Amino acid sequence: MKHVLIVDDKEENLYLLRAVLEASGKTVTAAPNGAEALKELRNKMVDVIVSDILMPVMDGFSLCIACKKDPIINRIPFIFYTATYTDASDEAFALGLGADRFLTKPLQPEDIVREVDKALCRSDLGQAQAIPPLDDEKVVLKLYNQTLVRKLEKKMADLEAANKQLSLEIEGHKKAQAALEKNERLLRDIASSIPGVVYQFVLDPKGYMSFSYVSDGASAILGVPPPDIYGDAIKAFSRVHPEDFDMVMASISESAQGLKPWTMVFRAMHQEGFYRWVKGNSIPRKQDGGGVLWNGTFFDYTQIKDYQHNLESKNAELTKANTELDRFVYSASHDMRAPLTSIMGLIDITLADTTDATAKARLNMMHKSVEKLDMFIRKILEYSRNTRLDLAHDLIQWDKLISECFDDLRFMHQDSSIALLGEVSQETKFATDQYRLLVVLNNILSNAIKYSDPHKDKREVKVHVKSDHNKAIIQVMDNGIGIQTEHVTRIFEMFYRATSTSTGSGLGLYIAMETIHKLRGSIEVVSELGKGTTMTIEIPNLYANEEI
Amino acid sequence: MPMKKFDHILLIDDSDIDNYINREVLEDAGICAQITVQVGARQAIDYLKSLTGAFPNVIFLDIRMPMMDGFDFLEEFEHLPAAQTIDCDVFMLSSSINPADLARARSFARVKDYLNKPLNNHQLEAIF
Q1: Which SS3 state, helix, strand or coil, does residue A34 take?
Q2: Where do the H-state alpha helices sit in A207-301?
Q3: Whole domain around residue B75: which residue ranges?
Q4: Whose CA, among A139, A298, A469, B27, lies 20 to 30 Å from A510?
Q5: Pick from A227, A228, A216: which is nearest to A192 by CA?
Q6: Which of B66, B60, B64 is nearest to B119 (CA)?
Q7: In this complex, is the C-beta atom of B128 within 8 Å of any C-beta atom belonging to chain A?
Q8: Residue A181 within any structural domain of the chain
């Protein structure tokens, strides 16, 4: 069995060579450097040497020189196997020293075995490399030095280049690191200073839930510092109010399934036994591998919830108060009107039975006073209802409405000498609050009749209605006494009466104006003293926007 | 003596004064042979149920009355035998000007019209 001495400073190289050579039936001795190899050569019968070049203590070249100088071992074939000395001049120098072969790493195992066998074969046949004419030791040393210097220079150049490359890389890394740190600081600064919690939440394909990021605000809202929340979400979920727990869980799985934004208001324990309202918002996104990831926020919702609660109860109270007030107003008006109507009835029947002219005149005056009082009650009721009630949407048939209005007015004023003339053009369906519309029309038409001019032969009140898709324009024109210019702007003021002969309450036009505003309409007045007054009312059609 | 327009008119009101006024106005108008007054809705229903003579042709009905109001009366009135009530017109006669009362009164088939107090000749001319 042939004995191979392998020399290399690298464990793994020795291991590989030994394995390859032993597999081809060789005995192998290993040495970590030239000096150790020389010791082995003195003690063992070695048939071939396979040596690396660059090694500590004693390199391959020195080992080769030593071998070739030693008459006992100088016939053992010497093979260089190197990865570092790969120049042609290196090979020439090596072979000049008396080496058999100069092999460059890495070689296939079979090639190594073949080269070793070839060397052994030549040695057996006595064809081993002749001992070189290295008689001039100085020449050898000079060559050796040159080789080393060359190697060193190359190494230095390589090292310098590597060094340069490395500093460039380090510089790049430093910059990247600084940018990264700056970003992280910014992120942490934002996350920790906003009022609330920023988080990232993950649901993995197996259904395991965890927080991959939670900002510092978590301590205040969930009562748990971020380190305790990271990982398994169970710690965070344990802070959710038991009554809200199922709802929260259901909403998470719903958001995961539909990849829909998650919004939830729930209670969370911020310290033992104390709960706060928390609003959570997050956007889910599918992850590679099947999980879902949410980026989102938690905010303390307690104050808003309190406001909301207050608002709701205030609203309920107000609605109740409003209903009660409406009932009260009606009840009070009824309680006032009931005895008033009795008085009026009594006056009427007494009038019918009386023939005494003075008594009749007085009873008529009483009747008028009572009517005035009744009218005042009605006005207060109209005002009260207008300010409080919601806008109703009723379909209006203008011709019917105007003619009914005229009937009521004729009945109320008992004056057939004033002609009431209507003209209606209605293009489409029209909707508004009928009660309020009648309040407006009755007040304005009553005024037109009340302030008719007794000196004119043909007294008349004309109503023109033009109703279309968008609005209705109602013009009320009379040839009455008219209004003095300086009063025109003031007639809609509360309790303002423009004539000294006025027997009204001063509320009629004020209520008309207020009611028109409720109907989102407007009114304009043009009047000339002694000629008459024209009021133009514009009311939007509420039918345009919705079905009734 | 001219033919009376109605045989029998029933007045239902808790106010004695109003009943007095209404009776006067109706008597002055001379349109009715018999006028009956009931001072409460309950009494009126009992009266109508026990009635053996002529069923009223017209009822004037107040709304605000203690215990049982005009609307309660109308609901019970609808359960009386149709043969009796079919030719009887009910007129609400109230001092209420609440549109809700007006609307509610109109929802009853038997109610012919809604009058505001006090009852007077003009109203009678308009409805009869």
Answers
A1: helix
A2: 218-222, 226-229, 234-237, 242-258
A3: 6-97+110-127
A4: A469
A5: A216
A6: B60
A7: no
A8: no
Compute the 3-state secondary structure of chain B and give helix, strand, coil in percent, each to the nearest 5.
40, 25, 35
**pLDDT score at A465:** 95
* CA B121 to each of CA B25, B27, B60: distance values in angstroms, whole numbers, following the listed order: 7, 11, 14
Band of residue A245 on the pLDDT scale cut at 50, 70, 90: very high
pLDDT for A498 beyond 90: no
Q: Which residue has the tokens 């799985």?
A: A253
The secondary structure of residue A272, as a DSSP letter, is T
Rounded to two decimals, the pTM is 0.51
For tokens 């005042």, the residue is A376
The Cα–Cα gap between A2 and A121 comes to: 11
Both tokens assigned to A485: 């210019």
* Dihedral, B42, B44, B49, B53 alpha carbons, nearest 10: 160
Angle at A527 between CA A523 and CA A529, to 5 degrees: 155
Of B98, B116, B126, the CB nearest to A330: B98
Phi–psi pair at A161, nearest 5 degrees: -60, -45
| Mean pLDDT, residues A219-235 taken together | 81
DSSP string, A480-504: SS---HHHHTTTTSTT--SSTT--S
Separation between Cα atoms, residue A268 and residue A244, nearest integer Å: 9
Q: Which residue of B has its CA nearest to A343?
A: B118
Structure confidence by residue, pLDDT tens digits, A314-365 = 998 888 888 888 788 888 888 888 999 999 999 999 998 899 999 999 999 8
What's the number of CA atoms in the CB half-sphere (13 Å) around residue A336? Answer: 17
Q: Are residues A330 and A263 in the same domain?
A: no
For A75-134, give the DSSP string.
TS-EEEEESS--SHHHHHHHHHTT-SEEEES---HHHHHHHHHHHHHHHHTT-PPPPP-T
Residue A352 belongs to domain spanning: 313-389
**Of residues B17, B98, B122, nearest to A342 (C-beta):** B17
Choosing among B97, B104, B113, B120, which should be mutated to test the A contact, i.e. which has the most A CBs within 10 A? Answer: B97
- If one counts the domains in chain A, the total is 4
Name the residue with tokens 């203590």.
A57
Nearest CA to A203 among A192, A212, A195? Answer: A212
B116 near A CB under 8 A: yes
Q: Which residues lie closer than 8 Å to A83 by C-beta, 6 or more apart?
A: A52, A104, A105, A106
Neighbours of A101 (CB within 10 A): 20
ipTM (interface predicted TM): 0.84
Helix/strand/coil for A249: helix
Q: Are residues A488 and A371 in the same domain?
A: no
Neighbours of B57 (CB within 10 A): 17
Q: Is A435 on the interface with B (CB under 8 A)?
A: yes
User: A4-22: per-residue pLDDT in tens?
Assistant: 999 999 999 999 999 999 9
Q: What is the domain-level CATH number for residue B20?
A: 3.40.50.2300
* Residue A97 pLDDT exceeds 70: yes
Eight-state DSSP code of residue A19: H
Q: Looking at the partner chain, which of B24, B100, B117 has a beta carbon nearest the beta carbon of A341?
A: B117
CA-wise closest residue to B68 among B128, B127, B14: B14
Both structure tokens of A369: 């006073």
Distance from C-alpha of A368 to C-alpha of A308, rounded to nearest angstrom = 53
What's the mean pLDDT when you consider all of chain A?
87
**Domain end call among A94, A114, A135:** A135
Q: Name the pLDDT band for A128 (thresholds 50, 70, 90).
A: low
Residues of chain B with pLDDT under 70: 1-3
Q: Which of B94, B89, B93, B127 is nearest to B108 (CA)?
A: B89
